[in-house]
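Input record (one chain):
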Amino acid sequence: MIRSELVQNLAEKNGDLTYGEVERIVDIFFQEITTQLARGGRVELRGFGAFTTRARNARTGRNPRTGEAVSIDAKKVPFFKPGKEIRDRLNAK
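The corresponding structure, as predicted from the sequence alone:
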């Protein structure tokens, strides 16, 4: 599902809200998650999972086209850990 499909589904299920209002809510939701992660924080959605950041060390990589060694800087990357309910639902038999 892509973002526009999410907005469309939410708009259909909430007839009292316009498509534009739902789109704004989704924008604010994603902005708040991004802002919190940029601050080094954690976002936990009970029953769904938790978003955090993890540090990646600097390393030497290779350019796949030329094979030349390239230095890759240390960076933070987003990480998602699913909650128990979502894991159970994905693995239901």
